[in-house]
């Protein structure tokens, strides 16, 4: 690896970590950089997943303020995300990618539009144990499906998860984003662990991309904390729509 290639991947990692911890769009930056580095698609995909483990670590460390009091809720959802991540990794290593790639642009486009819609304050529901169990089951199912995609490819899985958390929990953007980072991080780490043993990870590329992701992701939660929430939602939504169009062109070309 030349110094110029190392620098390119490091900068891509910083950009990926920053955008990933804010909007869940890390792969929009890091995956093309790995392809430009000369890696074949499967190797670039699994190398990207392993590198993004460092983004998860940095984003969670940066989100500690927003995660206060979220522990009980997250402890119920993290096992679901772990199972989804493992299922996604298994799919990637055993099935062709065509089916997922044709569905993802529509899913991402819908999620991006959801983020762009004006938000209303949700009324606090009555303390009904059956209703709470039903909502938790529905939330767990949705997170399991999103985690499968996160373990399988992951491009913009964070946008989809962020849109779901904003719509289903009514949490402020910084809190929803912090929860997204933890849940998707669990799915990503599970998939990455599988790839370490079963897939062709390019470790020379992991070093600069992972280091950059750690730096960028540590800064992202601070941006979400202090930037105007409406402005951030618009930026995330528009970026997600742009990526949906791009992925749609690639999938249906």
Overall shape: globular
Strand content: under 5%
Class of secondary structure makeup: mainly alpha
What's the rounded overall pLDDT mean? 81
- List the helices and strands in order: HHHHHHHHHH
Number of helices: 10
- Radius of gyration based on Cα positions: 17 Å
How many strand elements?
0
Characterize the largest beta sheet: strand count, sense, and whether it forms a barrel: none
Tell me roughly what share of residues is in helical segments: over 70%
Q: Which regions have little confidence, pLDDT < 50, spanning 5+ residues?
A: 123-127
Q: State the end-to-end CA separation.
A: 33 Å
Structure in words:
By secondary structure, the chain is mainly alpha-helical. Helices cover 82% and strands 0% of the residues. It has helices at 3-23, 26-36, 41-62, 71-94, 98-116, 129-152, 157-169, 173-198, 203-226, 229-252. Helix 1 runs parallel beside helix 9 (203-226) and helix 5 runs antiparallel to helix 10. The longest helix has 26 residues, at 173-198. It is globular and about 55 Å long. It starts with a helix and ends with a helix. 49% of the residues are buried. Residues 123-127 have low confidence and may be disordered.
